[in-house]
Design brief:
17 strands, single chain, 10 helices, Cobalt-precorrin-4 Transmethylase, domain 1, Rossmann fold, alpha/beta, 20% strand, 5-stranded parallel β-sheet
Length: 429
């Protein structure tokens, strides 16, 4: 393995004098980067780019409109050559070396006393990559690392407390983790999870991501099951606020979306009432995604133009009892028989298709399809259990798991909104 005579470091140039020799595109980029670092920049060049002229006119840097002189290096903390003329760049580099001033020679990286890395900034983290003097290789690596930080594949957690040891107020992020597959959490959610000091986790959602957390990240389990809430909602609210007020970054990791039957609104309101910054990160709600895992769209041309999401049979009296209006039942396995009876009593035909998707997107996903009149018996016989999403309506016909006699000519993407005919809706249970 080759050993490079490079010692990586970072310069703090705030308020320090810096010299840029050259006025072209490279000089312009370097001058802007040095200004971003807070340096006092002087550009020496007979001709300058429009960008450099604008910066000079705005008083952000000084432009000396003339050729380079050896004395220009006097008093500089750092020098960047970018004239495009190797002879001039070499002369500047030699003058800087004589005065023991770090100099980047844009014309000859091998002869340069310092190299400018490819740089990216993610939050307050600065990534600087040197790649053996190959700038394109360095940029590719920089971009890969930045993307990994943005997506949460690399951690962004702060590990060092403030210099005076003072405790600052933390924050809370309500993150929707999607239906359970780790690939269905949003990029923002994954990134915040990588920054978390504390994760308050539900029973559902992308649980495998918890195994990727650093060992010192604390996981507080608050998962609920139907009829069993070991950690009451009021206690969950208190945990979020207490951990944030202790100066920690808290992620409330939920299944689905925190604002779709997830009580996220209550948690956000409680945090704000107690002066805690809160961010809501939407997730892929199971009400739509889990049916999709079984090939069931909640709307489909010619079959359904709308849908309702409910959690129990009590709300069913408020939704349209029509096969062309999709009903999605969450947490409804325990009351499936009562829900089916309620819909039948409201006028929904007994032969209306019903699909149940258990453990959507997970390896043990299972799909059960029947009719409003048969589904309760089918579910009981096969041991259907939560987590499961129940879909009621003609859209179930589209599923590749539906039996052949469920298929109908009523839906088509080539003849949208084709009128439905009664003779195509007769089903055999």
């Amino acid at each position: 393995m080759a050993i490079q005579d490079i010692y990586p470091t970072a310069l703090r140039l705030l308020g320090r004098p810096v010299l840029v020799v050259g006025g072209g595109p490279v000089a312009t980029r370097r001058a802007k980067g040095l200004l971003d670092a807070g340096a006092r920049v002087t550009v020496v060049a007979p001709v300058a780019s429009a960008g450099l002229e604008e910066l000079a006119d705005a008083g952000l840097l000084t432009w000396e409109q003339r050729p380079y002189r050896t004395s220009d290096v006097d008093g500089a903390w750092f020098v960047q050559t970018a004239t495009g003329d190797p002879a001039v760049d070499s002369r500047v580099s030699a003058d800087a070396e004589a005065q023991r001033v770090w100099c980047v020679n844009a014309s000859d990286h091998e002869a340069s006393a310092a190299w400018t890395p490819a740089v990216a900034v993610v939050d307050d983290v600065q990534i600087a990559v040197n790649a053996g003097g190959d700038p394109r290789r360095a940029m590719a690596l920089r971009d890969a690392v930045a993307t990994a930080l943005e997506t949460g594949d690399l951690p962004l957690r702060r590990r060092r407390i403030s210099k005076d040891g003072a405790t600052t107020t933390g924050s809370v992020a309500l993150v929707g983790g999607g239906p359970g597959d780790t690939g269905l959490i949003t990029v923002r959610g994954r990134r915040l999870l990588g920054q978390a000091d504390v994760v308050v986790a539900d029973r559902l959602g992308p649980r495998e991501l918890l195994n990727e957390l650093a060992p010192d990240v604390r996981v507080i389990e608050v998962g609920k099951t139907p009829g069993h809430h070991p950690v009451p909602q009021a206690e969950i609210n208190r945990i979020l606020v207490d951990e944030a007020l202790a100066g920690r970054r808290v992620v409330r990791l939920k299944g689905g979306d925190p604002y779709v039957l997830g009580r996220g609104g209550e948690e956000a309101e409680f945090c704000r009432q107690h002066g805690v910054e809160v961010e809501v990160v939407s997730g892929v709600t199971s009400a739509i995604s889990v049916p999709a895992a079984a090939g069931i769209p909640v709307t489909h041309r010619g079959l359904a133009k709308g849908f309702s999401v409910v959690t129990g049979h009590e709300e069913l009296s408020e939704v349209p009892a029509r096969a062309d209006h999709t009903i999605v039942l969450l947490m409804g396995v325990g009351q499936l028989r009562e829900s089916a009876a309620a819909l039948a009593g409201a006028g929904l035909p007994q032969d209306t298709p019903v699909g149940i998707v258990e453990n959507g997107y997970l390896p043990n996903q299972r799909v059960t399809i029947g009719t409003l009149g048969s589904i309760a018996d089918q579910a009981e016989a096969s041991g259907v259990a939560n987590p499961a999403v129940i879909v009621i309506g003609d859209v179930v016909r589209v599923s590749p798991f539906a039996p052949s006699h469920f298929k109908t000519a009523d839906y088509s993407t080539t003849t949208p909104n084709r009128p439905r005919t009664s003779n195509t809706r007769v089903l055999t249970p």
